[in-house]
Amino acid sequence: MPRGDVLFNFYQKEKLMKPMRFFTILFIVFAMVTGVCAQEKKWSDQAELSFVDTGGNTDVTSLSANNLLKYKFSDELHAAWKLGALYGQSDGEKKAESYFSDLRLDYLFTKHLYSFVNAGWSKNKFAGFDSRYYVGPGAGYKFLVGPKHFLLAEVSLNYVNETYIDDTDKDYLGGRAFAKYEYAFTDKNKFSQFVEYLHDFDDRNNYNMYSETALISALSDYLSLKTSYVVKYDNQPVPSTLKETDTILSITLVVNF
Could you give the CA distance from residue 241 to residue 255 in angstroms, rounded to a whole number? Predict the structure, then answer.
């Protein structure tokens, strides 16, 4: 192989390794920090590092990292911060890149009834979003609370601001409906299914649907393997040349603290 081709291939591999190193370092930092915090009993953390095979608008092999940090102020008041990133390359070209952050505060009135307020931001240029901000209140009800079967439903209102990759933007009042079912084979082996619907009250044709089917298998007291299949549907993508449906098949290593 000519020397020039060898150098080019090495350069491309180095470009791919940079985001992988970043996510690995991020994963380790969260593990160390939350491991210390978990000793206080009020903190819990779940970190995920996964290989992802996507189809639709982003048909590539990629790497993703997610982290869910929870804090219990009291028996009634709980807080959660979830963030994540996904990066992918194909033939030396960036094909997938997305980020999100979500903050949420829950108040439990009873064992079944609760309210919440959340705010978040996301960015996914390959799905048409340069940025998306939202904030709003909501309420939920837990119909089943175990020990085997868990079922809850939520509704909420959000102020939404979206900026698209075609340099257009939009502000609107949005509605959200969410339902999740979980079956626990054991304390650490579970099946889950959730569906989320997002609606634009200013434009009834502008709505999104999101579903995840997942199976979690425990490897040890702290490690689990999560296999999931996600479907994202955008009825009115911007720009209109984008596909309406994205799918994500992933195998995820989960670390619990």
Answer: 39
